[in-house]
Amino acid sequence: MVVYAVPLMVLHITGSPAWTGLAFFIEWLPRLAAITGAGPLIDRYTPASAAATSSALRAAATAAAILGLALGGGITVVLLYAVLTGVLAEGSYLASEALAAEASRRAGHRAHRVQAVMAGVDQSAQLVGPAIGAVLLLAGPVALLATVAVLSVVVCTEALLVRSDRPHLHLVTDPPPRLLTSLATGAGVVRRTPALAWLVAALMVGNLVSGTIEVATPVLVRSWGYPASASGVIWSTSAAVALVVIGAARRAVDRFGLYPVGLVGAVLTCLSAAAAAVAPSLWAYGTAVAVMMGAEGAVTVVLRTARARLIPQRHFGSALAVTVLLVLLPMPLAGALVAAAPAHLPGLLLAAAAAQAVAIGISFTGLRRHRGAYEDHAAAPAQAPVEQQRAA
Predict the structure, then answer these.
(1) Which among 117, 119, 147, 112 has a CA at the least distance from the CA of 133?
(2) Residues 6+ apart with CB under 8 A from 178
(3) Domains annotated on the chain, with CATH
(4) Closest listed residue to residue 6, CA positions, set 31, 36, 34
(5) Residue 139 CB contacts under 8 Å (≥ 6 apart), including other chains
(6) CB of 322 within 8 A of CB of 189?
(7) CA of 149: how far to CAs of 90, 144, 158, in Å?
(8) Which among 172, 128, 170, 163 is positioned nearest to 147, based on CA atoms?
(9) Residues 6 or more apart whose Cβ sits within 8 Å of residue 377
(10) What predicted TM-score, i.e. pTM, was given to this entire model?
(11) Is 109:56 a contact under the CB 8 Å cutoff?
(12) Statement: residue 274 has pLDDT above 90
C-alpha cells in the first residue's frame, strides 16, 4: 500500500505532477541501495526475522511521519518517509523471494504453481491496498499513515509467532562476503547464463512501463476531472483481473509450457500499454491498465519460474540481489521521466510502450534460443513416474 500511497499523498499535498514523479524517484533509489547489501545477508537469518524487524521499523517510521505532519513538515516529511519505507521494504521482499525460489526448486515440474501462488499473494495485496489507501486518503494523510502503522505492527506480531524447523536458509556460506565481491559474483552468474540475461532484460523493460504508468495514473485521473484517489479503483480492479489471469496461466503452463504462455502475455502487455497511452477517457484508460496488469500477471508467473530454475543454488543470494537490482533499476527512472515531462504524459507513455515492444521482441527471441535451459526442467520430473509404471 505504501508504494501506491506515496505518489497519492505527494499529489494531494503539492498538486504537482513533477513533485509526484520526483517523490517516486526518491522512493526507489534507497530501495536499490538496500538490495545490494541485503542479498548476501538475508539468507543468514530466517525470513520471519527479516519480516519482523522491517515491520517494526516501518511502524516506528510511520509514527514519526504522523508526528512530523502534525508539526507542519509537509512534503519534506513525506519524502523522508518514502526513503525510509523504501529501504525497509527490501528485507521482507528478498526473504520472500528466497523462500519462493527454494520452494520452486523442491516442486520440480510444478515450480510454476509455486510462483503462481506467490504472484497471487502479490496481486491480492494490490487488490486491497490501493482501495484502502484511496478511501483513507479522503480522510487525510494522517489516517492513511495510521493504518500503515497498525498493519505493520500486525505483520511484526505474526512474524514473531512463526516457528520454523529450519532456522537458516543456508544459501550462502561463512564468512560473509564483501559487498563488491558479492555483486561481482552475482553479475558473473547473470553473464554466464544467457537465458537469465534475456529474462532480466524482459523484466527491466516491463518495469519501466509499469513504473511510468504507476506514477502517471494519479495525475492522468485528475486531468479527466476525477479525484486522484480514484486511481485506487483502477489498481484494485486491475489486481482482481490479474488474479483471474494468474490462475488461468498456471493451467496454461501445465498444457503449453513456459515460453508460449509468456510470449502471449508479453504481446498483450505491449498492446494494452499502447492503448493506455492513447486512452481518451478514464474508463478506456482503466480498461487498458486492467488488461495490461492481467497480462503482466501471466508473464510474472512465467518469468519468476524461469528465474528460479536458472539461478544456481550456490551463490543464490548474490545472484538474486543482482537480478533484482537490475530489474528494479527502471523504477526510479520512471519517476524521473514523469518529473521531467509532467505536461506530456500521454506521449511519454506511448514512447515507453513502443520501446517495450521492441525490447520484448528482442528479449523473447533470445529466450527462445535458450528455451531448453528453463523448459527441460519441467519435462524431466514428469517422465519419471511413467518410466516407473512401465518398469512395474
Answers:
(1) 147
(2) none
(3) 2-163+176-375 (1.20.1250.20)
(4) 31
(5) none
(6) yes
(7) 17, 9, 14
(8) 128
(9) 108, 109, 111, 309
(10) 0.71
(11) no
(12) yes
Residue 120 CB: number of other CB atoms within 10 A?
17
Angle at 153 between CA 151 and CA 155, to 5 degrees: 70
Query: Tell me: the pLDDT tens digits for 122-152?
Result: 666 666 666 676 677 777 778 888 888 898 8
- Cα distance between residue 99 and residue 370, in whole Å: 26
Contacts of 56 (CB under 8 A, 6+ apart): 152, 153, 156
Per the structure block, which three cell numbers stand in for 264? 502471449
Amino acid in position 127? L
CA distance 57 to 53: 6
Set of cell numbers at residue 287: 480498461
CB 231 within 8 A of CB 214: no
| Least-confidence region, from 7-11, 75-79, 92-96, 203-207 | 92-96
pLDDT score, position 268: 94
Distance of alpha carbon 336 from alpha carbon 280, whole angstroms: 25
The answer to whether 259 and 308 are in contact (CB under 8 A) is no
Residue type, 5: A
